[in-house]
Amino acid sequence: MMADVASPLVTVVQPRSPVSEAYRSLRTNIQFYAVDRSIQTLLITSASPEDGKSTTLANLAVTFAETGRSVVAVDCDLRRPSLHKLFGLPNEGGLTALIREERALGDVILSTDVPHLGILPSGPLPPNPSELLGSQRMERVVESLRSAADVVLFDSPPTISVTDAAVLGAKMDGVLLVVSVGKTKRDHVMRAKQLLERVNAKVLGVVLNNVKFDGSLYRYYG
Amino acid sequence: MIDLHTHILPGVDDGAETLEDALAMARVAHDDGISTIVATPHRNPWSYRADRADAERRLEDVRQACRANGIEIRLLLGGEAYIAPDLADQVRGGLALTINGGRFLLVEWPYDQYPGYSEQVIFDLQVRGIVPIVAHAERYRIVQRDPSYLARLIERGVLVQVTASSLLGEFGPEIQKVTETLVTCGLAHLIASDSHAVDRRPPVLSAARDRAAALIGEVRARAMVTDVPRHVIDDELVELPPPTLRKPQPFWAFWRS
Q1: Min CA distance, A200 vs chain B (Å)?
Q2: What's this model's pTM, rounded to 2 decimal places?
Q3: ipTM attached to this prediction
Q4: Which of A83, A141, A142, B75 is the most buried (most CB within 10 A)?
Q5: Rounded Cα distance, B183 and B220, in Å
Q6: Domains of chain A: residue spans and CATH
Q7: Of A91, A100, A128, the CB nearest to B127
Q8: Alpha-carbon distance B197 to B236, whole Å?
Q9: How much is the average pLDDT of A46-71?
Q10: Element containing residue A188 per DSSP (H, E)
């Protein structure tokens, strides 16, 4: 899987490319965002579907793991999970089994080909995702992930269509909003930001996805 | 071939009444080319609820009778569970029996209603590692009205079984048509007999397999009575293609709509 050039995991397939470099500077920005406290849990969401949040999350997770810190990427999209597919892993056990206390944390985090990077897939899809994500057991899961890894990245459904992202955002150290340039509508982004701020989620910033650039600035170093 | 859904276990439900009945069913199945039968008695709190050991004993009687009569066939134990809010606990408590003790559980619904708790129950089973198989999917009104409803369940990892005799039209042309749609659109993974006696949904699969082959080709039809059920009895995860939902339509189809 890792040799697949068409893979969205550009940081694995082409680690020296300008795009991978962009993910690294995103990582650096997050690391130095807060001087007084570090960002350990981060929700990555978007306003609308298919803006590229799962791909952003996966690549960001790889670049965090490159620094030698232990990273877990958690799929909280309990409607259309995709993280396990990006890493070619089965969606077994998973977050929902953990929330329901049917499985232990050590059993459900799947290792990847990337050192220090573990994936927690969504698990079976529940009929009531928002309730499950807002439950006290979910809070305990977040706490146990905090003590298990240095960095925990959470994937979620889009912010506007369902309430899941806002429910999660309130529990996190920070939220990143992925915007697809030329696709995501301006008022949708504003609405998403409002919804997150209403629950006191800390929106760290916006990631611009699908930016067209010619790469000339990077050529000297590449 | 492997028959994953039968009521061959004698004296426990509306299937075989006596050991002789069960033996007759085994003989018919064997003659049809079936190598393995899973006995899936109805199991729920208001019918057959004796412990697993009782079911094992009855099955061992059938095995011995087969051996004594020179019928070479493998008999395994399972059950046909009935959808209920506490079904996941029924599995844990040993009332609902999974197929051959593995992760797959045959589940039936009432024909004319779809309880609101169904999806919660499917989830409860799945977080415990159980994979539900929808029994005789073609016979539910919700499926007859909208076959694509099954696609939602399949996307969540549920398997679907249709009945051999439904595919052959023994429940009438409408149920036959629904069954054909499920098979054609990839909304069914398994064909089983759901046999209750040699003359009530007989324990044969070859005719239904051939009918399916006319719809989806020899290879896929054979898989529905061999490879897929083999994975189930061996407790192996099944990789299945996503449903295609729509039948391939001729280009003039819009004239009719």
Answers
A1: 31
A2: 0.87
A3: 0.82
A4: A83
A5: 10
A6: 10-212 (3.40.50.300)
A7: A100
A8: 30
A9: 93
A10: helix A186-198
